[in-house]
Design goal:
Number of helices: 9
Bound molecules: flavin-adenine dinucleotide
Strand content: 5-15%
Distance between the termini: 16 Å
Strand order of the largest sheet: 3-4-7-5
Shape: elongated
Number of domains: 2
Largest sheet: 4 strands, antiparallel
Helix content: 40-55%
Number of strands: 7
Order of helices and strands: HEEEHHEHEEHHEHHH
Length: 244
């Protein structure tokens, strides 16, 4: 992650050294959020040709396909809000974030599919639990950072003790913190991505949600700049004097 996230990590180095975005704590590992594009093999030109072919069906204007025609067509689609045509292509992401943030992102109902790590079936007594380092921590005093790290040792200890005492993970999970790491595969089509990104890259969104959304925006923008440059421009303009 870039930008504000780098600052955040730089401010949170008081306990030991970060190794590859991970910090080993007493009974858990503190980790950074991340987003990875799944199956990134389709190149931008192929995606554009695919979307253009779908859209031109409406106008029976396939004969107008040529160099640069797709960009023009997609600008027309955005301007005329003919956005159902943007539902034909979807991309999937592996997202690592906190349980707290995951409650927010699964609220996106239309054109979004999720598969999430289960706290019922995964037994964190058998693997070292991971906790997401929240964005606000980098802005706190050393004492407050210690408070955060030590509180999580206690919460995780409750979970591990319960599991040691024979509680199934689905009963012990009540002790897990909201900053507990979770992993999701999140698939969204272009239209649903645009709606989500407009909402979740805005300043009103939770800072940890913004971190995830900005990374997803970067990956969409890399593939399909013409369809995401308006949202990207808003984020860049907002970042000029950005204060989370
Ligand atoms: C800054 C912020 C703060 C928030 N705070 C809260 C909060 O305090 N509490 C809370 O519960 N949620 C909160 N939310 C979640 C928010 O209410 C939405 O559930 C979430 O952002 C999903 O947005 P959406 O409905 O546009 O997306 P989707 O569910 O993906 O829907 C996409 C679009 O489809 C249409 N649509 C979907 N369902 C319907 C429907 N039933 N009827 C009519 N049209 C529909 C709408 O046009 C909608 O924009 C917050 C979101 C943000 C961004």
């Amino acid at each position: 992650m870039k930008g504000v996230w780098d600052e955040h990590v730089a401010g949170t180095c008081m306990i030991g050294a970060w190794a590859g975005g991970r910090l080993e704590c007493k009974n858990y590992t503190a980790v950074l959020p991340s987003v990875e594009l799944l199956a990134p093999t389709m190149d931008s030109d192929a995606i554009m040709r695919y979307i253009e072919a779908a859209i031109r069906t409406a106008y029976k204007s396939e004969d107008r396909t040529g160099p640069g025609t797709c960009d023009r067509l997609l600008r027309h689609i955005l301007a005329s809000k003919h956005e159902s045509t943007l539902e034909h292509f979807a991309m999937g992401f592996r997202v690592i974030t906190s349980r707290g943030v995951s409650h927010e992102l699964v609220r996106h109902r239309v054109g979004h599919s999720f598969t999430q790590e289960s706290t019922r079936y995964v037994n964190y007594g058998k693997r070292k639990p991971e906790v997401i380092l929240p964005w606000h921590l980098g802005r706190r005093s050393i004492e407050q950072q210690e408070f955060w790290f030590n509180s999580h040792v206690k919460l995780i200890d409750c979970y591990l003790t319960a599991v040691d005492n024979g509680w199934p993970p689905q009963d012990a999970r009540g002790f897990l913190p909201n900053d507990m790491k979770t992993e999701l595969v999140w698939t969204m089509n272009i239209r649903s991505a645009r709606n989500m990104l407009q909402l979740r890259t805005a300043k009103a969104a939770h800072p940890d949600m913004q971190v995830v959304a900005r990374e997803i925006l970067r990956l969409w923008f890399q593939k399909l700049p013409v369809l995401f440059q308006d949202i990207e421009a808003e984020v860049v303009a907002g970042l000029a004097n950005y204060k989370l």
